[in-house]
Fold each of these.
Amino acid sequence: MTAYGYIRVSTRDQNEDRQRIALQGLNIPEKNIFMDKQSGKDFERSQYKRLVRRMKRDDVLYIKSIDRLGRNYGEILEQWRLLTKEKGIDIVVLDMPLLDTRRGKDLMGTFLSDIVLQVLSFVAENERNNIRQRQAEGIAAAKARGVRFGRPERPLPENFKEIHRAWRSKKISLPKAAAACGLPKGTFYAKARKYEENLKKWSK
């Protein structure tokens, strides 16, 4: 039996110390602790795949909490089945003692463990969906207040009006007009359309 640990943080800026300290307290060799700095939306993670290839039957995998394994309800259950049923690996979730497959190997113990896993996996994914919904609602509310996101729009070049008139009167081509303003053709055209729409509004 060999002990392994898995750590996941969603971005490179997040700190994994809390998870690492919890695993080191179990005397897991450093070489057996694998870490991904990647979203938990799926299991396409390089270190997780290396970990799964390394582990053998009767090995034990420790994780701090169920959402460190992943955040997709269906995929968490599938990975749990793959590890425990097909590969014969035990999993211990430190934040949830009921999710310790070393205990309760009888039918009732397995049943309770599976029920707890399904509930926690659903909660993890549901919270993720709620966060995304709150973010979307916050962005929509901010936009309604006039808050702009992304890069601020660059002001029109000083010669834009003059070049625009020459282009619309067919004195110069679109590529020449864009070049005269120092803009890509698509950008010049988009700015021209917006400029014309504003002119119509102002004339009303």
Amino acid sequence: MTTSTKLSDRSLGWLRYIHRKAHTPDDWSKEGKPHPHWDDRSDPPLASYPRFDLIDSSYAMGLMAQTTPAWREPYVAVLDQLLERHTGWWSANDWLTQFGDDPNRKDYPDMYRFLIPPELWGNYDAPGWTANGVEPYGIQMDPVAADGMLFYKGFFLVMLGLRSMIATDDRWNEPFKMIRDGDNTFEWSHTAIAAHLTNQWKDKPQGCHCENTKVWPL
């Protein structure tokens, strides 16, 4: 069995594409908006938010780094760009704007029926509606500290872990600011997020919430 030590032409094309995409300036603050090349349309209602494009774009960096470890610097540079965006307001725009029950729950398209118990159709939020503020949790503006948003902090930890696996420094284990919207500015680090999520699992062994009231049962 031989181990490949170079990237295929297809992989090189993907690396060129994601490197250009990650280094194209845009603004993920509340006052800005992600560049249109960050996908916010695919796989509604669960994944049609631009942060999922950050997450899905990161996996290849880990795989490529195993094949061509001497190219560490460009892989880390891409991951740093993805991670930096994931600290901005737009990385959690659903959590920061979807308060209470979905006002459109009675008007969901039929394609959502497989996501919702039949007897609750029209009176139940589809997965993907984060429901910040519903009882008994109340409004929690920090998407990492919140009882919900498991997928937000979980996928962020995957990205941080990929970067940690490849890089020689520990940049993201130093405290960094997230969301950065006036009073809604929160400080975290790689280790602090991992410890917080570990404690959430310990406190709720039945599972942590993704959207509020929807436990991830694994």
